[in-house]
Predict the 3D structure of the following.
Amino acid sequence: MAVKRQEDKLGRKLTKKEVAHVVHQSRPKKLKGVSDEQVRDQQLGEIGFFEKRTLRQVVAAADGKPKAFAQYVRPDDALAHGLAHVFERRSVAPQHKILEAALIKGCGQLNLGRLKDNLAADDKLVRVGSEFSTREILSKELYLIRAVNAGVEAVAPFVHRYEPAARLGLDQRKALAHVLTSPDRFTGFRGLAGSGKSTALVELAGIIRREGFKPLFCAPTASAADTLRKDGMDAMTLQRLHGSLAAGGKLSPGVVIVLDEAGAVGLDDMVKLFELARRDDCRVVLSGDTGQHSSVPRGDALRIIEQYSAYRFGELTTIRRQKPEAFRQVVELAAAKQTDKAFAKLVELGAVSEMANDDGQLYQRAADAYVSATKQGKSALLVSPTWAEIDAVTEKVRETLKAGGVISPQDESVAVFDSLSWTVAQKKSVREFEPGQRLRFVRHTRRFERGETVEVVATMETGLRVRRDDGTEVDFIPASAAASFDVGESRELKVSIGDWLLLQANHGKEFINGERVQVKTIRDGRIALADGRTMPAGFNTFTHGYAVTSHSSQGKTVDEVLLVASSKSFAAVNREQFYVSISRGRERVHIFTDDSELLARRVAASHDRKAAIELQALRDDLAKLGFNRKEQEKNSPPPSTAARQYRPARHFRVTRLSPIQKLAQIVEDVRRWLGLEHTATVAKEQAEKAEATEAMKPAETISPAVKETPRVRPNIKLNVPPPRRSRGIGI
């Protein structure tokens, strides 16, 4: 900020030496003559309660005496824990992250050098430099690619002619024409935020039902499935779909699985879906936007499919949500991953407010903007990158609402559950638990009901002692049902009549995770809502609903969105967070920050996770075979309302291998990286597919310019420019 103020004053950019001088002059002065005790007090004041408690425990235990561990942890067990913990939510991880988790598991018992040796010798891993993935993850990524490639031209189109409704936009007609006339088993469309995806899905459902097919709509979250139901589509969660067929059930003939919010589906769930579709001979239509937040579990499945397979899809490119033209242009820039230009446009429009935040004045300004919007009868949402900042903004909002008589000045304390977001590996490790923590069961088990919350009373050698609400205590082995519960802490939440709350868990079909509800009355700890419902007894997973993270805001639409991001939360700001946040509003977006210059740089940083197939050595080997990352065509041809839109003819490599030669090299490549033996059946299937593709005549309408592209026979060298498009990884 100091640098920017000086540049504005001088009317020019500062030199490097001038920047250094300004920074030196403006940074806080060093404290002189301060005692050690004062330094310690200041440092302790910067850490939280739980960090202080842990620090005190470490100090108390550091008495210089040998320790007898309650449970001996072998290096192999610690490493298995580290791998399970790290690879639950990412496909590629640096070595130090794996070692860190392993050392925590066997704290004080392990030798780092031996751990590194064991990690290097593990043949279940794929290593490139200091980055690791697993053969299982790589196999699943390649399975998705193979499944898509094998499904090209594998089914009959839904319709051969499509007459689009006049009410649809040009891009909606093109996207629907592609899906409805596609002969691919796996197809779909990419829908940018606010581009009218729901309208396209409703139209799609009506047409495929008319043609005798049965659409089965599903989504990765309960809130996304609820949104589909509100649009008139009978939908379920992807988890429920998998669960209903887990006992060997099959989908009936003619079912078309339509997966909404596909960009938020992880690798493992997408593999299960593709296996189901191939087993029951179903078609799959994917709808999603890889520019928004990806899944919490590992693997950006949709991005892998789009970039590395022969997946063909339509696009919804016209943003319809934002009403003002200037606002819509900002969102279009963000959707095109030009977030730096989008931010600059907001600055130009005066939609970025920069001010100091020493006494919380930044949060107060944002709170005033929120209250002003709601007084005008508009829906508004505050979005912030971290929960710490959300709590600070919420406090200012509630103070302002109380002063204005909008909510009751009288608070009621309600005990709520705050999730710690542990992985399954953490929940299996008894030494991770502490007395006072809470376990909330998300699935029914032999001893606990779904939705029940219990308190950890004590930790034992292999299990926990927990206390129910009625005071009874039972012993519980967490490793026996680690996927059935969540770990968190209890805190007191101040709630007033008129407050808005954000639900953070599902409770049956009536209460949906991510839903905002308003408090009408509070009696004996029971909360009655303004819409007539009453919160169930024991349902304690909610917080205030004025400000949310961008993850929680995804899928919501309001009149005004107010993004609050101080320098304290910049570490959580990225391109995807910024795009999702600003695209929630219809009429207006405004940003509040204490350092707009640094925030402008943060919004340009991507949070994309690396896939196993993107490990550099593997990418290099695949590139030698001609399987490069695919880029979506920028300029699509005009749509045809009479038939399926055409796709430009694919370019061929300078030296094209015969199908058998290509297959041999691919099999060798996969064998080398995965250590897998392909059976003769698989090889034969792929060879037949390659030959069929070679002789296949394009089914789509082709323009005269494309028809002039010469047919290329195997082993004929042509003097053509390098390919601009990939054929996908043809494995």
